[in-house]
Here is the input.
Amino acid sequence: MATPALTLKSLPLFPLDTVLFPGGRLPLQVFEVRYLDMVGKCQRTGAPFGVVGLQAGREVRAAGAPDEELLSIGTLAHVSELRQPQAGLLHLRCQGSQRFRIDRASRLPHGLWVADVTLLPGDATVSVPDDLRPAADALRQVRRQLAVRAAAESPPPAPAAAEDAEDDAHYADCGWVANRWCELLPLPLPTRQQLMSLDNPLLRLELVSDLLDRVGINGGQR
Here is the structure.
């Protein structure tokens, strides 16, 4: 007998013009009252909120703007770091975890969206095949270059070395490699959403590798 899908009731949502991938990191600057309250409650309880893409509407509420329309699949976000540089402003970093599908969404009187959602299975662990190794090798090189640049601008604390070592194991995994490329490439929101929504991590990496071939990042090695 199949295991019933796990559901969450009244998950608070943060609609954005971006896509959060499982395992990804997302910096946010929060100043709207509806989200200040939400983030505060999530921080105190350790509960996640949902990041979901906007099909219509704007991230910040404005008079005369079209109504917000939400895409159907999003990602749970957990607050990993929070700072309040001044009253009414929060800077936070979030970590993406599990994807979800919105079953029913509603907007509360003060503007916050909440939804009953079904959690989607995480990516199966699929080893990167030989013909897709150039995508994994190129990702490692790009991430190293970005790490060097970031260290030059702001020297990292000692634990960063442990994070780099942990990353090594991920470069053999289709889903992780594909997700990290999706975060780095300048893709339009519909393309990011389509790739994030795919349940097959091998197919996701194949599509990403095709994109890399088009811009010459794979070096024509496939």
Q: What stands out?
A: DSSP finds six helices and six strands in the chain. Residues 146 and 152 are 10 Å apart (CA to CA). Helices lie at 33-45, 133-153, 160-168, 174-184, 189-197, 201-215.
